[in-house]
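Submission sheet (multi-component)
Chains listed below:
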Amino acid sequence: MDVLAAGHPARGELAGSPQRLAVIDLGSNSFRLVVFTASPEGWWKRTDEIYEPVRIGEGLGESDVLAKGPMQRAFAMIDVFAHFCRANGLYGNMVDAVATSAIREARNGEDFLVRAREMSGLSIRVLSREEEARYGYMAAVNSTTLGDGCMVDLGGGSMQLVRVEGRLARESGSWPLGAVRMTERYLRGRGPAKRRQLDELRAHVAQELAPATWLRRSGTRLVGIGGTVRTLAVAAQRMEGLPSIGVQGQIVKVQTLDTLIARLSELPPAERAEVPGVKPARADLILAGAVVLREVIELGGFNGIEATEAGMREGVFFERLLAVEDPPLFGDVRRASVLNLAAQYHVDEAHTAHVAVLALGLFDDLAAARLHPGDSVERELLWAACMLHDIGMSVDYDDHHKHTRYLILNAGLPGFSPREVALIAQAARFHRKGMPAAGELAPLLSEEGDAGRLDRMAVLLRLAEGLERSRDQLVRGVGVDVDDARVRLRLVTDESATVPRWAARREAELFARAFGTTLEVD
Amino acid sequence: MDVLAAGHPARGELAGSPQRLAVIDLGSNSFRLVVFTASPEGWWKRTDEIYEPVRIGEGLGESDVLAKGPMQRAFAMIDVFAHFCRANGLYGNMVDAVATSAIREARNGEDFLVRAREMSGLSIRVLSREEEARYGYMAAVNSTTLGDGCMVDLGGGSMQLVRVEGRLARESGSWPLGAVRMTERYLRGRGPAKRRQLDELRAHVAQELAPATWLRRSGTRLVGIGGTVRTLAVAAQRMEGLPSIGVQGQIVKVQTLDTLIARLSELPPAERAEVPGVKPARADLILAGAVVLREVIELGGFNGIEATEAGMREGVFFERLLAVEDPPLFGDVRRASVLNLAAQYHVDEAHTAHVAVLALGLFDDLAAARLHPGDSVERELLWAACMLHDIGMSVDYDDHHKHTRYLILNAGLPGFSPREVALIAQAARFHRKGMPAAGELAPLLSEEGDAGRLDRMAVLLRLAEGLERSRDQLVRGVGVDVDDARVRLRLVTDESATVPRWAARREAELFARAFGTTLEVD
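Outcome: structure written.
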């Protein structure tokens, strides 16, 4: 049993009062300090971050040594991190500083580390290739529903691949195929990329990965982490006209990736940020990264790449948070996500849990009466909407249904697809009044039947909320009688429950739209 | 010294651990239960609310008694409130239930109360006219900068007026001129309002208010509370094409009010919700309320009405929160608003306070060098943006500048006008990157020079944030040298501060746009 899914306080080394962990990631492309906080109330999240595209790996491909300029930028940034940690009371095992490919493989990497440690007082550890792969795996498996498939972590210096079976890491490897390195080696020109350059890069990737024969046995699902994957996911969303609600769970299809590679190739590096979704700071690196990933897809026979916002840093944090689990995995990623978000906003647990019980009870009874398909995923999304419907009260009581939508869309729910997050957010948005509609999220809710799903989720949540108007579980349960085109609710309660009845009757119009029947409340 | 403005824990009866007060307002038009929470961390806010337009005063104008139907609705709702309080552990002096005009003045009001108390176990007190007026006054003076002027509280049954001088209540009165009452007496028809009906209503208001000769001596500023005022403020915003960021501080001009009255009069009551901003539940009452308020403006010679979202319920809460003050007033409403919002989101106080010190220091030095006007209000808005810039981190670290904007716009800042709130929110929105622009808030930022104000606020906040990159006050201060078209910053620091220098230099482009000079950082 994992700690968050069960709604229990976080355990492991982070148990007790709110605990923080600063993960410092000295990557080949960027340096990042991320502070994670785990509360005894059962939630965890990133609470701070400092990011700088230091590019310590710049020029490393040619010389095998860290160059002077990059090292100076690195020392200055490590100094900032050290200051930040001291200023924020982060010391000892509350700080975990890790260095990856560039520093690990440079001939003067050890010299650099000696000076960095001395200057900053930080204990920096160099991750082995295996450790780096394992942290990427933990990030992927704890932020998506990946059960069987493959994880790819493409950084600036190296790329890690892990084959996953039954959520466990089975095979893994690390290759010096990072985006900075490949750009410097194969795509140096200032003009558009040449066909020959791209072919050489592809051939190099294929040759390097040839020994990983297990790649072909990884199934069709590929989860990707790292800045290249996130950038490609944003670009894919723009290309497909999808609203921007974060890239968590966004799938970059093979065809979309091919189109993006074609567009990027036609532009000189300095202009690649013209492709919507590509930021200037990454414009020169994105093409090489995209080509490497495309070749991984080709070699493994994957369907595309599913992006996750979690990265190696989250892996380091999960190892600590879930220390009592072996392996350190959430029991149910989707459930853990919902409970984690709910716990951040101090909702009235007895109320939301009872709203969920009432709404799911209605869902089941109406499905049994064949008034809707009773799909199990829809049921899970309804549960999530019930658990989260009131979190917007933390912004302001007025319009809290709209604030709930905002918070869900912006914080995200790892394990759910963007479409599923949109359904949850939109059902919560309509938990008080108004006729449900997809609004700006329409491009995400384009699966057949989504309008009906949203109606059903919203009206069941509203009925349950109305029955829980006094928030004291006055209405213990609801009986459902169905005859012809009429649904009659019988409230199970010891008291008069006049207001719950009024509240429930108000939903007759939406109920009729959702289920095609009249609603009566006894 | 008031408790919130000083950043101290809330004192008075609400001191210690987080304290809650449920105010139950049994008004003539609506019943409302509002839970206020005051935290020892120094913030307070509404944390829950149940609202129902019970209309207990329905028919009261004709008969002088509470009618059977309205009383039944009232008992059912009071039962819900009692359940809610028990379910939420609110009892004894944590609940303050007050009844106003309708119940106070009905011949069977006492019978109603006896039964309501017996049934619910709630201690309901009937407010005298003076008490009701005083609570309205406390709400107005603690949620706006009203120093000299008048407060009008228009309810369903009665209207209270309080003349304010030097923030103190000087004269007051209460009249049975509420919106429900006046609608029933003067505007009963189902068709458009007749000229004669409106004239009779106006004459009645004038006659009733004639004894309040002090009304003419109240100056030109009128602050209005109650649902009628809020509805008119929303309608005014729609009419003027302003973005909807709440009505706090929105001024309804006389001319706008006249246009609204003319439009509403032309429509039958059932269709008045067609006027944008008017909700169906209030469509039948809004015209009478608007006419009463228009007559108050006429008689007092006011400039218009300034809406506040605080109401009598907030007055009851403020009396408790500010119990150690006499009278119970915030020392500085604007300052208290900013600190209250900041405290809700656990910002790093040492960091935000130092960002404010650095930004305001730059503001002052650049004003001394005549590079900008050095307006004191702009300085205060810059301070507010500094204090609040990081609150969006509570939603998600990514895009926290955008979340900050959302939280500021949606929670509101009592004491600031919508335009001022927009400037603060937009400056915070651009505290990390991007070229500042008004975006959707453009209609609010239409005063001459607003674009320049926003640029100055954003770039000074960004410079300060860059200098505070390590969040440990490494850069203690900044010296400013100005010659010709060049500004040179000298960082006061004991250490190398390489990164703060980089960060500050990055702002040269925006600095040039804001101040018309180049920026150098030594």
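Remark: Residues 1-15 of chain B have pLDDT under 50 and may be disordered.
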